[in-house]
Amino acid sequence: MSKSLFLGFMERMLAFPLWIKQIIFLNLSKDLVNYLSNEFLDVQEGELFHIYKPVLSELGQNELLTKESNFDDSIYSFLNCCSKGMSLIEIAIENNFTMEEVSKAFTFCKTSGFFSSSVPNLVSAVAGFIAGKYRTGEYFIRAGKMTIEQLDEVLNKQQEMNEAGKHVFIAELMVQMGFVRELDVKSIIFMKEEAGKRFSLNPDDVPTIALEKESYDIRVENTKLKEENEILRQKMDALLTFIKDHKDTGISEEPAVQPEAPASEPETVQNSEKQEQSEEEPGLNISLKPFAEGQES
Question: If you average pLDDT over each of 157-161, 234-238, 276-280, which comes out highest?
Answer without folding.
Answer: 157-161
